Amino acid sequence: MERKTPLYEIHCAAGGRMTPFAGWLLPVQYGSGVISEHMAVRRQAGLFDVSHMGEFILQGLDALSCLNRLMTNDFTNMYIGQARYTAMCGEGGGVIDDLVVCRLGETLYLMVVNAANREKDAAHIRSHLAGDCRFSDRSDDIALLALQGPAAPAILKILAREEDIPSRYYSLSVRVPAAGLETIISRTGYTGELGYELFCAAADAPALWHAVMEAGAAEGILPCGLGARDTLRLEAAMPLYGHEMEESVSPLEAGLGFAVKLEKPDFIGKDALLAGSPPARTRIGLAVTGRGIVREGCTVCREGRPIGQTTSGTHSPLLGKGIAMALVSAGSCAVGDAVEAEVRGRQIAMEVVPLPFYKRP
Amino acid sequence: MNTPKELKYAKSHEWVRFLDDSTALIGVTDYAQDALGDLVFINLPEVGDMVVSGEVFTDVESVKAVSDVYCPVTGQVAEVNEELLDNPALINEDPYGAWLIKVTGITDTEELLDADAYEKRCAEEEG
């Protein structure tokens, strides 16, 4: 039985097509459709309910050292009010999850994890706690709304004080009022667009949702579902757990080397990652040059020989063509190469292109 | 949901507009286009191809997924609506105007429903 976020009734009333996702019932789209929602985020603004995401708190004098041991990124020089993307690996170097770590206070950290991995992550983290370090899973108490798009700052200014709106990418304001409710405002997102994520108490989520929709009405804000979330993150070449990475894929293969600090003192998976560097596989971008859409799990061939598999693929509403990411043998192809993907028994012509497919102007 | 009375419907969500006893236009229903979402690609058979009742004759692709389209009649493809190749969104905008293929020499048909029976069936699928 799927769970419902605090905004379930609001989605239904707004015409959301509810679908099971990672154990939750969430809107895949609303009445206006995936393409309209996608373009609203690229041109104006969109509002997403991402309350299914898991939120963990780690607190104590040894919280930093625990994080640095559990995660591939380094949090030593992170300031209070900063967020940082990281992978969390097993001893074998495979990705257990990818997540964002936020420093909320001197010894207080918030982790935002994938809904499908919440229990697995909590068990893994708990089993590696040491010293003065208290862990709690606060996912059920916290709701998360993502306000994304070029109009997001103007909309948020109606609801929050200017000094509480974080101006730097991957920074946040802790315990600040928005629409009269206590929130964390984080300048993060999963769309490749300027935007914010608003954390609030689960009970406050409906009021915050309505306030944002009302404030954004003049800007043409649309509620957006999982469909647009996927097309937006794909255009921005942002990886999705279970697609670009999983426990059999290393963060280096998945193109997350920027979040892996091999020079850092010992962390879980470091030896395996060092042994597997440079990686044998690499993540590439592909654009369809023929007709059709190449989705995940398609074999990619160059000059007739298989070089890897697509990990995600969709129709790009912005580019008007099929785009995909693939995990392929390192060195098997280069940007500009023609390749083919097998889709339902047909070969679809593609070209290797640089990532991301879309970069905010 | 729009379900014109003058058309016949297959359980697999295609409509049939008979032009005479052995010639018909085939398309996908309003219910189907709504469930599929924004259509971005369509493949069509070639003129002259044989199509068989109850078998897949093409597929349509939305942002979300690819879906087979079944042929409700057996016959030969006389025309394809090439306009859809460049603009599959016409199916979303006007599902009963945006025919996919014209079939001639129809020798057999699927068990076809009238508008009321088809609407009832869709309501059942909604649960």
Describe what you observe in this structure.
The complex is a heterodimer of chains A (361) and B (127). By secondary structure, chain A is α+β, with helices and mostly antiparallel strands. Chain A has 3 domains: 3-53 and 140-235, Probable tRNA modification gtpase trme, domain 1 (Gyrase A, domain 2, 2-Layer Sandwich), CATH 3.30.1360; 54-137, Aminomethyltransferase beta-barrel domains (Alpha-Beta Plaits, 2-Layer Sandwich); 280-353, Beta Barrel (Elongation Factor Tu (Ef-tu), domain 3), CATH 2.40.30. Helix content of chain A is 19%, strand content 35%. Chain A has 8 helices and 20 strands. Chain A has helices at residues 8-13, 34-43, 63-70, 118-126, 152-159, 205-216, 226-235, 270-275, and strands at residues 3-4, 18-21, 24-27, 46-49, 54-59, 83-89, 95-105, 108-113, 134-137, 142-148, 172-178, 181-186, 195-201, 222-224, 281-288, 299-302, 305-316, 321-329, 338-343, 346-353. In chain A, strands 11-12-13-10-4-14 form a 6-stranded mixed sheet. In chain A, strands 15-18-17-16-19-20 form a 6-stranded antiparallel beta barrel. In chain A, strands 6-7-8-5-9 form a 5-stranded antiparallel sheet, with helices on one face. In chain A, helix 2 packs across helix 7 and helix 5 (152-159) crosses helix 6. The mean pLDDT of chain A is 97. By secondary structure, chain B is α+β, with helices and mostly antiparallel strands. Chain B has one domain: OB fold (Dihydrolipoamide Acetyltransferase, E2P) (Beta Barrel). Helix content of chain B is 22%, strand content 39%. Chain B has 4 helices and 9 strands, in the order E-E-E-H-E-E-E-E-E-H-H-E-H. Chain B has a 6-stranded antiparallel sheet with strand order 1-2-3-9-8-5. A 3-stranded antiparallel sheet of chain B has the order 4-6-7. In chain B, strand 2 (14-20) and strand 3 (23-28) form a beta hairpin. The A-B interface holds A 28-29, 33-35, 227, 231, 291-293, 295, 314-315, 317, 344 and B 37-38, 40-41, 43, 59, 61-64, 66, 92.
